[in-house]
Design brief:
3-stranded antiparallel β-sheet, 336 residues, 9 helices, Rossmann fold, globular, 29% helix
Length: 336
């Protein structure tokens, strides 16, 4: 009971519940916590870039050059590889469903072409789409390969202890020693999840291997990772073309005439500069990244969603804006 002073010197007695102060204190604590959480959310939102800005930052603005002599590239070629830009880790993004028409980009033609079968693709309503064609690069996209003599022992040990699948192959070099072909011994590390990735993508897409590596190196390697012959087509360095700006460019028209349903996944974006709207630039893989999960957690979901697109190019353009990226690197792209 509390006494309050009243007018005329009298006093009034007011009954106060003994638990009221506890209840008030509890509510004040709850309100204070809610206010704190609200301020924290506001600060996070203020400091977070838009989705578009995040995507652009992931695909190449302010990228650093990779070393010109990558160990993985040296295993596949006797010549010094072209330096290329690496892409930061791709985010998991939702591919917008749309039916926007877009004319195919300009591209040079080469004689070899494999027209893949139609049908067996995703179904939208009553319309069955042509099966998606997924073109996969080899080195630093699916595997990381090193000449055995150049592989640092500590790197090999760490990669194996971390659980990376690996194997060794003998491949024929393009160099000759005393009139005989040189044999190179190569250690190959599979990117985590590779076998499951090939199996699951093969359920909804044609798989094509397209590498700038020499066939003497790449063929025995692919025989090891593709025992089940999931690749319906294998293309090696002779199938690449030279352009004004880069060598060993992969012209997707040798894979399919219908570029609406073709996607290429390559860690080197210059490989698909002839068809920039069809490319997914992936993070380069090396044996020093044993806990990489790009294939199953990023690339696979993206490809699965693209398989429902009548034309993959508008969605890929919205995600990566590759024509602008090439222009920033001094390569004008003319889309016709």
């Amino acid at each position: 009971m509390a006494e309050l002073g009243g007018g005329g010197g009298g006093r009034q007695q007011v009954w106060v519940s003994p638990n009221s102060s506890v209840v008030v204190g509890a509510w004040r604590g709850i309100v204070n916590w809610l206010g704190f959480l609200l301020q924290l959310c506001i600060q996070i939102l203020r400091g977070t870039p838009s989705v578009a800005q995040m995507l652009l930052s992931y695909v190449g603005f302010g990228q650093s050059l990779l070393p010109a002599a990558s160990p993985s590239r040296n295993a596949s070629s006797s010549s010094t590889p072209l330096p290329h830009r690496s892409f930061k880790r791709l985010p998991v993004v939702e591919v917008p469903l749309q039916e926007t028409d877009m004319s195919p980009p300009a591209a040079g033609r080469i004689s070899a072409r494999a027209d893949l079968g139609e049908g067996d693709g995703a179904t939208i309503g009553d319309h069955q789409l042509e099966k998606l064609t997924v073109v996969l690069d080899l080195d630093e996209t699916l595997v990381s390969a090193y000449e055995k003599s150049n592989l640092p022992p500590n790197l090999r040990t760490r990669a194996i202890e971390a659980g990376l699948k690996w194997f060794e192959i003998e491949c024929i070099s393009d160099k000759e020693i005393e009139g005989r072909k040189k044999i190179n011994y190569v250690t190959v590390f599979e990117r985590p999840g590779l076998q499951e990735f090939l199996t699951r993508v093969g359920e909804f897409a044609h798989l094509v291997l397209f590498t700038a590596g020499l066939e003497g190196y790449a063929r025995p390697l692919v025989d090891k990772i593709d025992i089940e012959n999931r690749f319906c087509l294998r293309l090696y360095r002779p199938s690449t073309v030279s352009t004004e700006h880069k060598e060993h460019v992969k012209d997707l028209l040798c894979v399919s005439k219908n570029l609406r349903r073709v996607v290429i996944v390559d860690n080197n974006p210059f490989s698909f500069l002839l068809q920039p709207l069809n490319g997914i630039p992936c993070v380069p893989f090396s044996a020093g990244q044993p806990y990489d999960h790009q294939l199953l957690e990023v690339v696979l979901p993206m490809l699965r969603q693209l398989s429902y697109q009548k034309d993959v190019r508008p969605s890929l353009y919205q995600m990566f804006h590759m024509p602008e990226w090439f222009q920033m690197h001094g390569i004008p792209i003319a889309l016709t």
